[in-house]
Structure formats: C-alpha cells, structure tokens
Specification:
single chain, TIM Barrel, 26% strand, 17 helices, Rossmann fold, 859 residues, alpha/beta
C-alpha cells in the first residue's frame, strides 16, 4: 500500500468570501483576479455584493439586473476554467431581504398592548398601522373573552365592557421590527423577510427564480445564508401553529407571555412553548423550505444557524453544508462543535466556517494568527474553510484598494498575499484528510435546550459567542470531555428520535445526558430505544424530573414518569467525578495526548484505518511516546505544512498503542494508523536529535527592499539583526512588503551532516533560500526548517521576510492621505469606531533573530 495525500480538490483548498462593492465589477478584472486567486491556492469564491465605493456610482451594476446576471455567468465560467467553483448568498449584505419584500411580508415583530378597561366607560381600540392578531380580555374572576371577531379591517374595535370589576385587555399585533438589509448592494436594498413565514420567503425567492433562470442547474455550487440577524419573533400564522403544536390557545395566555402575572411557573412554561414554536417554524418555514428551493436549482445549501432563537443542532443539520464562524478571536470549540456535530449526525461531508473575522485589527493580522485560529476550527470538526474575506479590487486601484470593514483581508494588494500560498497549501492538505472517511466519535452529548429555556427565560438569540452557555451543566460537561481528549458530538431531541427510529448510529457507544431538570417524555422514549440497540445512556449528576412547557402538562408528566420507569439496566446515573471510570467500563476511548496543555486532537476513520489531526497550540514541546486509542497498526506521520510523509516509530506498551512524536509549539501533524499493516514504498519518518549546541549565524547582513510600498528604500548593510524600521534608511519605518536579508557564512566546526535552521523571531513570514536551494516558506512559529548539508565555506543564506501592512497605513494616516472611500459604514476599527492608525506604535518588521544552526542526527 502506497500512502500519499488525498487528491486536493477545490473543496480541499480554502475558499473566500468575495465582496463585490457596489457590484462595480467587469469581465477583465474578474478574469485577472480569479487567476490570481487560483494561483495562490484558493479553491472557490462566494460572491457577496455589498455597498459601493464613493464616487464610483457610474460603474455600479444593479443587483440581479440582466447585466449583473451576465457577469455572474461569466464569473462561473472563468472559475470553472481554473478548477474553481462559485457560491452565492440568496441576497446582498445580510439578512435576506430586498426591494421585493412588501410591507406586509416584512411584518415580523409581536407587539402586545396592555390596558385596563372598566364598565360604563366607552372603549375603542384603534391600531390602523398594525396588523391586529388577537384581542383578549381577562376578568377579575378568571374569565377570558376572545374579542378577535370584533376587530374591524382597519384594526379598530368597539367593545361594551361587562359590568363589574375592571378587565385586563391584551392586544397582540404584528408590526415591522425595523430591520432592513445590512450593507446592501445597489439593487438589493429593502426590508428583511419574516423567516418564520413561508409565504414571505417564497415571495422573496420569486425574484431569484426569474433573475437566475438563465443559469444551468448546479452552475452555483451552493446558495448561502449568513447568521441569523433578523429582529423577527412572530408571524401572522403563529397562533394557529402554536395551537396545533401545543394544544392550547396562546392568545389566552398573553398575560403570561408578557410576564405580567405573579405565577412565574406559568410565565416560564408558556414562554418555553412559544420558543419551541419559534424554533420549529424557523426550521420548517425557512431553513427546510430554502434548502428545498436551492435543490430545485441543482445547487446545495450552506447555512449559518447561530444567532437564531431556534434549535441550533436541527438548523445546522438541515442544509447540505452547515457553517459556523469565528468572530473577534480564534473561536470557542465547544460552540463550533454545534455545526460539526450536526454535520456528523446527518452524514454531511463538509462542515464550513467563516474564518478569521476580526482576528485582529486591520492591517495587523499575520498568517501565524490565521493558522492558529484555523487549527482550532479543524479540531472542532470543521473541514471547509472560508476566508472572511477578499474584496474585489482591481490591481490598478491605488493602495490599499477596496476593503471590507471587518478584517481580515485576504487580497493581492495585502502584503500577506506574498506568502499566503504556504498557508493555503497547509489548509488544503489538512482538509484533504479531514474531508475523507467519517467521524470516529464515541460519545453523544444530549443538548437539553428545553431545560435552558425553562431555567433561563431571558435567553432568546443563541449567538456565536456562546454567552448563553455560561453556567450551564451541558457546557461544563462538554468542556470537561474536551479537556480529557474524549471524541464526542452533540445531539438534539429531534436527532435522538431519528437515531432511535433506525438512523445510522456510527461508532457511538454512549449518550450522556447532562444534569437537567426538564426533558420531554418523547426524548426519554428515544433514549430507551437506543439502549435496546446497545447504546449506553448515562445521566450525569442525576436524572430529569419534570417536563418543559405548559400544554397538556398533567398527561405529559405521567408519560415522563412511565418512560423513566421503562429505562433498562443500560441506563445509569453517574456523578461527574466518577464519569471517567464509568466511560472506561463502556470501552469509550480517551486520547491522553490531550493531557498536554495546548494539545488538541480530532480523530476520524479512513479507508486505511484511523486518522488523527494533532495540533500543539500550547508552549511546550512534545518529544517522546504518545498513546493512541486507535486499533493497532502501522503508524505514519504526515506533515501538512511540508507535505512530508514517513513511517513512525510505534510500540505496544502497557496495553496501549503508542507513537513516537516530535511536535514543537505551533506545529501540527497528521497521524495515520494503517490497521492492515501493509505499508510499502514509504520512507521512515525523520526524527531529529540535536548533536551539540546550536551555532549562531552572525555578522554583517545585506538588507534589500524587494517589493512593496509606498516606495522601496535603498539597500543597506546591517551589523546584526533587528527590525528594519530601526535601520538608518529613508522610508523603512513606513514600508510594507518583502525585504531580503542576505549573509555569507562558513560551516561550523562540526562533524554534522544535517542541520536545522532556526530563524528565531520573524515579523511576519519568511521564505528561506540556502545556497540557491529554496528550503520553503515559514508562516508561523516554530520558524525552523531542515537545511540539509552545508558547504565548508561560502554558504549564502537569503531570508525574504514579508511584514503586515500596519506601518504603511499608519504612515498614510499620519500624512492625512484619503483612502477611506467606502459607503455606508465606510471603515471602522475592532470597536466599531472610526478607524485611525495615526497614533499606532511602529510595529517591528523583518528578521529579528537570532538565526541559528542546530546540528542533528536523523534517527
């Protein structure tokens, strides 16, 4: 068996969100930019039209106009010729909306008006600007009178109040929440749809049916929906949907929905039923309907479920490609696993991520930061990276070109583009492994969403930052499993039912139910059926004792009690401190490598056996034997940064299969266990053993400014290493681009035949050439690579360092140059305040060193 990296398809490569500012695009630049993207290793683009550029109005192409459609067709054709593909959101900016959304179909917000009325006092309700859904009167002695039949077409109502004590009158009306499309492109402006109203969605999609009718089926790989940023919370058909699902009339409980009564239990239960209805209507009327529409076009659907008030696992599990995102940092794996868990349970090949959004301040994000954040996504189960993003910007535009207001910029005008192909190749190799085979997770963790609703009635939107998880036993359990190296997925009530009805159970051995008070009896029935299929059920820190919601409460409580009584001996209640021991008794595997701080792992089954992606995001070096929970077999190490593959040293020791592993801080590796042991034509892995002390390369360096701007300073000689901004040469302080450091040196007095070259500190990435041999590009710590042998004298080392653009933009702002030329939000910093780099400190740039040689033996 010959082992190699899987074929690098367009999906293996990273994709990018391609901002079309004002849709001011033309065929020549589309073709030129796509060629540049493909050459850099980008596999596809997601076209997202947004607001335009100031003064460029004459070149804007109205969204979905015939000319816009022709430009889209041209883009798809050009991309195909380059081996790329194209996705597109079903709209501009976000969320879905536009000029085709009428005032009526935009109504999406519940307004409850409360008043006290007394007999003998004339009463007239008048709400001409609102759609009245229900009017309900509550008497002092518990009477409830529905007055809907008295509402006139203009929203007015006359009612003769009965004699006796005052009545509480609640009026439910449907209004517009005020949300229009954010960052809309020309021709895409308008109100947002109501995502709970299927008719609102279908009316909205009619425009796309017409505008995209010229595309052949499947021309667009995916239709895309961004995160839930609607203000909607109701629809015109909500009361009837609610009655069908919960068996009682919500209009008779508007006092509880408003929180205006002393009965806190009824308030929480009614609100829980309301939120359950919202969740199901979002799933059925929007996510499922929109996915079906995408399929009718021969395309897939790609959806971000986070931010919504619905069941994230069900919403992520509906589209063909669930998508999470990182925002303002590297992301929380416990949150990102909602998307990947849904993908795993529903058999989706891809799980994508909007990646590197606001990873740092504009012009400051390094490739090292990108790699670290993307590694965090990989171990969360993400295997289809989308950069956020790339603004369409003709190369002839003055620097810095067209930009999007939320960093990071992956575009040819940015200096990091120089070494981006190295990151892209790394991502492609990683994803070729992570898109192969299937998940190899042992545990399902039940997500008790109803318990969250019942115990946290203040929670509505479930945003990506995960604040709603704080203090939840579910989150504490998940973090504990993660820290101990258990491989697990989340599961919803609906998904448990699918599994119990004969769905693919994969390799799951146990379902863990976190500590929760409330659970639906139907979910307990599903758990019971899973135990009959051989899956262990573990209630952690106690079993649930009550049902959520208000409808049919007595019968459902009896059902819960009966279902709990039917659970068989496969079901256990286990305290969290004893959980690890119990999981061991169930043959649930733990990856003990996770005990090393910063080491994170994901495990998958492949056609060969078991694949691990292991990343060292900590500060310690791993150098020794690491235990594997995979079945015994030949072990290969595959370096996604270099592409190297070799047979590792492995052993069976103390009942565990172990591999010899060397992994520096910042490095990642693929460990492949080939279980049939038929590995041939594969070299041994090159383990490196340092023979003696390192040797520092020192002396005079020639510093040449190769490419960048605003201008290339003159070459200079420097004694010792340091930031080029400290050199005594005009323009160095504001320069952004690539600078070559060159030195000639003799080999150390050593018998070593192999050397490692370590660059020390680099700001920010480097391409290394030794004696005319291109050794590779280094984009993140450790800035170390194998140099091979040396000449006895006259070795020439060239290190071409590329920095980020921070110093250049700082210089422009200090000179007062005008470059912020974008409409609407224009350009803001990470705090969403006006961007100004003039007061930044000068950022270090270049080869800071020290540069050393380490004599090594290969063993």
């Amino acid at each position: 068996m010959i082992i190699s990296w899987p074929e690098l398809t367009s999906e293996c490569k990273p994709w990018t969100r391609w901002w079309w500012l004002g849709s001011s695009v033309d065929r020549s630049n589309i073709a030129d930019l796509l060629r540049r993207y493909a050459a850099a290793g980008i596999g596809g683009v997601e076209i997202t039209p947004i607001y335009g550029v100031i003064g460029d109005e004459a070149n804007e192409v109205p969204y979905l106009s015939p000319e816009w459609g022709k430009l889209l067709q041209f883009t798809i054709s050009e991309a195909r010729s380059l081996g790329m593909q194209v996705d597109m959101p079903t709209g501009t900016g976000w969320p879905f909306g536009g000029p085709q959304v009428s005032d009526t179909s935009a109504l999406d917000k519940l307004h409850i008006d409360h008043s006290v009325v007394s007999s003998g006092i004339p009463f007239r309700l008048n709400a001409p600007d609102e759609s009245v859904l229900s009017v309900t009167a509550y008497g002092a002695e518990g009477q409830i009178i529905r007055l809907d039949d008295k509402v006139e077409g203009d929203g007015s109502i006359d009612w003769e109040v009965p004699d006796g004590p005052p009545w509480q009158l609640y009026t439910a009306s449907l209004t517009w929440g005020g949300r229009s499309v954010k960052r809309a492109a020309p021709g895409g402006e308008g109100k947002c749809i109501n995502p709970f109203d299927k008719a609102s969605l279908q009316s909205y999609l009619n425009r796309f049916d017409e505008a995209l009718s010229g595309l052949e089926p499947g021309a667009l790989r995916c239709h895309f929906h961004d995160s839930f940023e609607y203000l909607a919370d109701f629809s015109s058909g909500f009361f009837e949907e609610f009655r069908q699902r919960h068996g009682y009339d919500l209009a008779c409980h508007l006092d509880a929905l408003s929180g205006d009564i002393d009965d806190q239990d009824r308030i929480v239960r009614v609100k829980t039923d309301y939120r359950a209805t919202i969740s199901e209507m979002l799933l059925e009327n929007f996510t499922q309907s929109w996915t079906q529409w995408a399929h009718s076009k021969g395309s897939l659907s790609r959806n971000q479920a986070h931010g919504s008030p619905g069941n994230l696992l069900d919403l992520y599990g509906t589209p063909d490609i669930p998508e999470t995102e990182t925002f303002g940092g590297v992301g929380d794996p416990i949150v990102n696993k909602f998307a990947s868990s849904a993908a795993h349970l529903m058999g989706r090949k891809y799980c994508s991520s909007e990646s590197c959004t606001w990873l740092g301040e504009h012009f400051n994000v390094t490739l090292a930061q990108c790699k670290d954040g993307i590694d965090g996504l990989f171990v969360s189960g993400i295997n289809h990276i989308f950069f956020h993003g790339t603004a369409y910007s003709p190369i002839t535009d003055p620097w810095p070109g067209r930009l999007f207001y939320a960093s990071t910029s992956f575009a040819p005008q940015d200096p990091l583009w120089k070494d981006l192909p190295a990151l892209n190749a790394y991502i492609a190799r990683c994803q070729s492994i992570l898109q192969s085979g299937r998940p190899d997770n042992d545990i399902l963790v039940y997500w008790p969403l109803s318990d969250l609703w019942m115990t946290r009635p203040d929670v509505y939107m479930l945003e990506i930052e995960g604040r709603w998880m704080e203090g939840q036993p579910f989150a504490e359990l998940a973090r504990g499993l993660w820290s101990k190296g258990y491989q697990f997925d989340y599961v919803s009530d609906r998904q448990l039912n699918v599994l119990a009805e004969g769905g693919a159970l994969g390799d799951y051995k146990a379902v863990l139910v976190p500590s929760c008070r409330y659970i639906a009896p139907e979910t307990l029935e599903s758990l019971y059926r899973l135990t009959e299929a051989g899956i262990a059920v573990v209630f952690v820190d106690g079993a649930p004792s009550d049902v959520p919601g208000y409808g049919d409460l007595k019968r459902r409580r009896e059902h819960l009690s009966e279902a709990m009584g039917r659970l068989n001996p496969q079901t256990k209640i286990v305290a969290r401190e004893h959980l690890a021991k119990h999981l061991g008794s169930l043959n649930v595997r733990r990856e003990s490598m996770a005990d090393v701080e910063g080491v994170q792992i994901i495990r998958r089954r492949s056609e060969f056996g078991t694949d691990y992606f292991v990343t060292n995001r900590g500060v310690l070096t791993i150098d020794g034997w690491a235990a594997l929970a995979a079945p015994r077999g030949s072990v290969l190490l595959m370096d996604p940064m270099t592409g190297d593959i070799g047979v590792a040293e492995s052993r069976y020791d103390g009942g565990q299969w172990e591999v010899r592993l060397q992994l520096l801080a910042g490095q990642s590796i693929v460990v492949r266990v080939v279980e049939d042991n038929e590995v041939s034509d594969t070299t041994q892995w090159n383990y490196r053993v340092q023979k003696s002390d390192p040797f520092e390369i020192s002396g005079d360096w020639t510093v040449d400014f190769l490419e960048g701007g605003p201008d290339c300073p003159a070459s200079v000689s420097a004694h010792g290493l340091g930031s080029w901004t400290d050199l005594d040469v005009a323009g160095a302080e504001v320069f952004a681009g690539t600078v070559r450091y060159t030195i000639c040196f003799d080999a150390p007095d050593s018998a070593a035949e192999n050397w490692l070259l370590e660059l020390g500190e680099v700001a920010d990435s480097a391409r290394v050439i030794l004696n005319g041999r291109d050794l590779g590009t280094l984009i993140s710590p450790p800035f170390r690579l194998e140099a091979g042998g040396l000449l006895r004298t006259g070795n020439v080392l060239e290190v071409c360092v590329t920095n980020v653009a921070a110093n250049r933009i700082r210089g422009m702002d200090r000179r007062g140059e005008k470059w912020r030329i974008f409409k609407e939000i224009n350009f803001v910093n990470r705090q969403y305040q006006a961007f100004d780099a003039s007061d930044w400190d000068v950022r270090s740039a270049g080869l800071l060193g020290p540069v050393t040689l380490l004599p090594i033996d290969a063993s």
